[in-house]
Write a structure and sequence with these properties.
heterodimer; A: 8 helices; extended; B: mainly alpha
């Protein structure tokens, strides 16, 4: 009984201490930062197609995403991306740069625990679910199309 | 002028997608891993039912750069590989289509983790 009371008091204390995100500025920041990242991606894609006209649409997009991933990993390495993330919230998580950051950030943070148990293990704390869900559901989609193609 | 209008649309659609992510964060307090998985699944379903290509023709980077595009290429890869390789495609399709992104993310993260030290979080 006493435990319950104490837990309640603690929960109240915690919710009073959690920094409140002000909804409107956060929404606005995530909007323009997210939009800007997409515009940068479109710019890289257009430049690639301009410089190498023989690239297929699909390869150009793959190279664009690789370029964005490179930039985001580098910015995570020098500590800038986490600042952007604090400022933009969803605007920095939803683009592919957020996926890249979610791999680079823990691997840099846990570097001190060693290369195998630090970098390589912690690398997938956030990206793991993304890859597992992605691969598993792509297999489901493939299976459905295979079954449909039988008839 | 056309290209300018294109960029405006990319900005607006990409921004709205990201803002929708922020709405999910504010209203439900979900973690970034769940945000990423949610948007990935949205893209995968859109591609599987055949709607995604129409959206991406118009929105371009507005949907290709958000992780929606990653989910869509997983589904597109699986469907394409089943069409060309049959049963084997179920297993090879998804990862083949996204291999570039996953390899880049892992490779660069490993490289920069070896180079840079962690920054103390304030």
């Amino acid at each position: 009984m006493e435990d319950k009371k104490r837990n309640e008091a603690y929960n109240q204390y915690v919710s009073a201490k959690i920094p409140k995100t002000h909804a409107w500025p956060a929404l606005f920041n995530s909007f323009w930062v997210g939009g800007l990242i997409c515009v940068i991606g479109q710019g890289i894609n257009d430049l690639l197609l301009l410089a190498f006209p023989m690239l297929s649409q699909q390869s150009a997009w793959a190279l664009t995403l690789i370029a964005l991933i490179f930039i985001a990993s580098f910015l995570t390495g020098i500590g800038v991306y986490d600042q952007i993330g604090k400022f933009a919230g969803g605007g920095s998580i939803v683009p592919i740069t957020g996926f890249s950051n979610s791999i680079a950030s823990p691997s840099i943070e846990f570097k001190s625990e060693g290369i195998v148990y630090g970098i390589c293990v912690k690398m997938f704390t956030i990206a793991g679910p993304v890859i597992v869900f992605g691969v598993a559901s792509s297999m489901v989609v493939g299976l459905i199309y295979w079954i449909i193609s039988l008839f | 002028m056309d290209i300018f209008v294109d960029y405006i649309w990319v900005f607006l659609i990409g921004g709205l997608v990201c803002m929708f992510g922020e709405v999910l964060i504010i209203t439900t307090n979900i973690t970034s891993a769940r945000i990423l998985v949610t948007f990935e699944m949205i893209g995968l379903v859109l591609e599987a039912i055949g709607v995604y290509d129409y959206i991406s023709d118009f929105a371009k980077a507005g949907v290709n750069v958000p992780i929606i595009g990653f989910g869509a290429s997983l589904a597109k890869g699986a469907i394409g590989a089943v069409e060309t390789h049959g049963f084997l495609g179920i297993f090879t399709g998804g990862l083949t289509a996204t291999a570039g992104g996953i390899a880049a993310a892992i490779g660069f993260a490993f490289l920069f983790a070896l180079i840079f030290k962690s920054h103390t979080k304030k």
